[in-house]
């Protein structure tokens, strides 16, 4: 049986981020073999991941990064089960590691991001699994967005559980920092379902028309009028739920489309991404 020293335990802690007692136990079980001990710790994390796979992840952190030239933005949401875990340094460091990996690799998908190798040889997913073994909770990258545009604006809400990327086009020479942030804040607060009415999916349109008809029918409106009334309600839905048609929350005398055009003629939005960790 190999003698396990404090230096050995510290070395394994540095390699894996696992707790001191877990490292000592793994080294003892592996008879001092560091690679075998790492495997033991990883299996421990995987067991927790498997056991808690159906658990809800309603806490966590949303982080964003915009490139220095402002043309690309990354947005990640790392979720956990409980609020205390979301506040510990290990979890915050893991969230930053995930974001940094997204920036470094420019991963196109969540799957690419999770597979990205880190300097210590572990993938992003392996870092997540290993921390699960340490803290005993399910952890998951629930959202990842990668946006490229003429200019990208970002906003993270004060609760650190909601975030937005906004893709601006026809920027010209305007400084769009302020308006971009305002629009991003609007998206967090008002939750638009699409950029404009052309972006609303057919199923949603059909549902809103049927709701409009049922409401009109319940109010005793004539059957022949139901379709027209429902179309009017659908137009109201577009105004309230599509970004460019929404009233600006800071000044309801203008829509978002008008706000952008006032900032710079022709300025508009080509896309937006909103992520949230919800309970």
Automatic annotation (TrEMBL):
GO terms for cellular component: cytoplasm. Residues 74-276 form the Translation elongation factor EFTs/EF1B dimerisation domain. It is found in: Cytoplasm. The keyword Protein biosynthesis applies. Gene3D superfamilies: 1.10.286.20, DNA helicase RuvA subunit, C-terminal domain, Elongation factor Ts, dimerisation domain. SUPFAM superfamilies: Elongation factor Ts (EF-Ts), dimerisation domain, UBA-like. Its main location: cytoplasm. Transmembrane segments: none annotated. The keyword Transcription does not apply. Keywords: Cytoplasm, Elongation factor, Protein biosynthesis. It comes from the Bacteria. GO terms for molecular function: translation elongation factor activity. Associates with the EF-Tu.GDP complex and induces the exchange of GDP to GTP. It remains bound to the aminoacyl-tRNA.EF-Tu.GTP complex up to the GTP hydrolysis stage on the ribosome. Belongs to the EF-Ts family. PANTHER family: ELONGATION FACTOR TS, ELONGATION FACTOR TS, MITOCHONDRIAL. This is Elongation factor Ts. The gene is tsf.
